[in-house]
Design goal:
The complex is a heterodimer of chains A (975) and B (75). With 975 residues, chain A is α+β, with helices and mostly antiparallel strands. Helices cover 38% and strands 14% of the residues of chain A. Chain B starts with 11 loop residues before the first strand and ends with a strand. The chains are: A alpha+beta (975), B alpha+beta (75). The complex binds magnesium ion (MG) and zinc ion (2 copies). Chain B: GO terms for molecular function: DNA binding; DNA-directed RNA polymerase activity.
Amino acid sequence: MQDTTPKDIGQLSFGLMEPEEYREMSATKIITADTYDDDGFPIDMGLMDPRLGVIDPGLECKTCGKHSGSCNGHFGHIELAAPVIHVGFTKLIRRLLRGTCRECSRLLLTEDERDEFRDQLDESRKLSRDLNDVTKAAIRQARKKDRCPFCGEIQYDIDHEKPTTYYEVQQVLTSEYSQRIAGAMQGDEEAGVERTTPDELAEKTEIELTRVNEILSGSFRPRESQRKAIEKALDIDLTEEDTNKLMPSDIRDWFENIPDEDIEVLGINPERSRPEWMILTVLPVPPVTARPSITLDNGQRSEDDLTHKLVDIIRINQRFMENREAGAPQLIIEDLWELLQYHVTTFMDNEISGTPPARHRSGRPLKTLSQRLKGKEGRFRGSLSGKRVNFSARTVISPDPTLSLNEVGVPDRVAKEMTQTMNVTERNLEDARRFVSNGPEAHPGANYVRRPDGRRLKVTEKNCEQLAEKVEAGWEVNRHMIDGDIVIFNRQPSLHRMSIMAHEVVVMPYKTFRLNTVVCPPYNADFDGDEMNMHALQNEEARAEARVLMRVQEQMLSPRFGENIIGAIQDHISGMYLLTHDNPRFNETQALDLLRATRIDELPDPSGVDDEGKPFWTGYDVFSELLPDDLNLEFTGTVGDEVVIEDGQLLQGTIAEDEVGEFGGEIVDTITKVYGNTRARIFVNEVSTLAMRAIMHFGFSIGIDDETIPGEAQERIDETLEDANDRVEELIEAYERNELESLPGRTIDETLEMKIMQTLSRARDNAGNIADDHFEDDNPAVVMANSGARGSMLNLTQMAGAVGQQAVRGERINRGYEDRTLSHYEPNDLSAEAHGFVENSYTSGLTPREFFFHAMGGREGLVDTAVRTSKSGYLQRRLINALSELETQYDGTVRDTSDTIVQFEFGEDGTSPVKVSSGEENNIDVDQIASRVLDSEFESEAEKQEFLGSRPRPTNLSEHADDRLAEGTEVTSDD
Amino acid sequence: MVDVSQHELVPEHTVLEEDTLEEVLSEYNIDRTDLPKIKRNDPALPDEAEVGDVIKIVRDSRTTDQAVVYRLVVE
Ligand SMILES: [Mg+2]
Ligand SMILES: [Zn+2]
Ligand SMILES: [Zn+2]
């Protein structure tokens, strides 16, 4: 048995590996570039040496004795003929070369400076700041030194030629110094430079005349001070850069002498990492399991890119050794050394700028170590953070108003694929046998069973009957998903917590996931082709967590604004409006039909008797049946009237968006907070079904005639627009006569624009009002706008009255041609028509010019939303990444992973937004709640005390289990 | 010059006494470097605050009346 208990990671430390460590962990030294012999067996001490692990099934690992699958593979090593630089550390190597003495290797800082930087480093560590700031400053300080403070050696500049070559740059006297001095002494008549005699030069530079003559003859090389003096006197340059290449072996020797205490100041722990280890003398060879070879169809072996690269390295390494032993000239040795460096470099990173990538025979660049890790498809982003998972399904979503908001309709073909593991016991043995006997094709069937000895058997059509009889307690059965199973459901982009919620499964025919329309707002889903993902949970712990924490009803209140995010939408709202606005009457059949999909199966006493002597129920009566019996509420509603609910009876007001809608419908919000999530779920479910029944009872449809106004109204609108045009003309004339008075803080031009805009928008509103006068209150567009179901009066105005001014960047349309918007307008025409005022309505149709202006305004809207979504998405990602590791601790503080306190109390007040009242005046009636709870819930004082001690929450974890139609009329509070 | 620390929207910043500081640190079971930081040159700081001091900030809160926060003064 493998130990699968999770373990804590105590500590991770990063450092360099010592060559000796590479040798110790190596299973074998690799000396030959060949992989397999003629019989197809791996060659000893070759790149496929069997001690490096096994990939062929059936073979045994020569190091650990395990078989392929359980042997992880073992490293080997190559002894490099000459040291080479590790490309991953070129920057650090450069820094160390620049900051240490070329002679004695000590850090070029006085002891005092060194101690100061060490202290700074300690402080940065304590405050968890970036150590690089300190170490960079230390190197900068060290580079300023011309001479070593310890041995006095002159220090030279270090040049780094990417990727792995370093030079020492020395300023030396040029070899043609005498010619240059003589040339400069000649003077230049054209440039007006006079001749200089040796006497004058001697005088200027304070060098003896004999020395000057010696220098001029080239028999004496001027010292540095003399050189500088001559350079200054004659205004010439006598220096030359002498570059001296540093071989990796030189660098290694240099680094070996850096004392431990000097390295510490550079932020390196000398016990774990010595700088000379950045120069490789031994190269670890990854196990064969990390670079498996593939056997092609024709029986040929195809090796991994890494193996190809290792072959190159070994070949060059061998050639290097042979040439050196044969005493080859230095030039050839250096060439081979560079080649070895190139192969080791590209083995680690094949995408280095300035270096041609190593290529396959086909010309494809090789994928080496760094390429396996980097980028979107790399190990980190591709395989570790973003792996694809089993037990998940994705398909198109479609609506199903008969489902509860907690449920999801799952296609049967998905249910048959995504199994749940059943641990068979005596109590579920019969069920388990039934699933197995159904086989893998019939729906509540099973796909696999696992015997107590661990053998996994596939259930087939043929063996299912036999297998079912063998199933006993202790077996495991992978049964199909059935109604009531819990799954996780998700729609991308997952921008908030409610984008991933748990649902209970209802298995259904056809191919789409089905959801209740009230969960569209949290997922931001619609049914124009949206797809969603489902994940089947695979252990009891996960299923319990999902049920308790993630179920849709538990997400009813949004942590963003503390109010309900789930509620009635669109047609539900229109339906409730129709049901309650004029409080219509229903006979018994009609009332029962409205309530047929709810728990209500008995009507209350009728409100009254109609003219024919038959009893009737009002819309209020029907709606009140859904409310908790003791609910009391009073607030100003959507339509502007006062909504009054007393003892669970709606007495006054219209039920619409602000009452039962998403994003803070008052009644839904109150029920969730006062009566609990379960009661709220039942209420929302019932409101939506009642509303659907109501809207079907009244009939609700919309057509082009509903936005058409009579001819006389159109005439009035035309008059209004004509008036507005006249007034705009007057404004323009006044402007042209210079009679227009500018508004405070505005230029005359701006004033004119503002006044025109005002005039025109008033004209549009007037047109809208005229149109509105001709719409009855039962006009469907009006109903939708008034109830808040969809659309606004502005939409109606634009459909029936006039579309109005089109704007780009908040101004009338001003772009296009020179001094005009379209080619056929007069230049500088300021009229309404020439700047995008649309007089027509959508119903009457736009002229081509109007259409063009409308498209301009519309495009701006599209561009804006595109830019906004990408900008805000990026901002959100960065916020999430920055805050993702913050965690609220049991002591109420919010801390990051290094235990630094971010907030002393969660949110500075220690409260959850969904657990507090967020009403406008914050006036929650505590007395009412307290007395109601205490008085109504308990008959005796003893019971009350018992309650005040501890109150167990009623568990209601599966909606599937509780038959909500058969339940009592009232649901007890669970919150 | 405007003294920002006297503005009504700037909450009260006081230097914490050493023994009260010990209580705070033990209450949260932290070192002083685990506290949030404030720069020495922050204009809201009282004049006597020095690097290494811990500042107690008492903010008005809509939900809890007062919210207390501690910060370590750094360079
Ligand atoms: Mg869509
Ligand atoms: Zn092995
Ligand atoms: Zn030195």
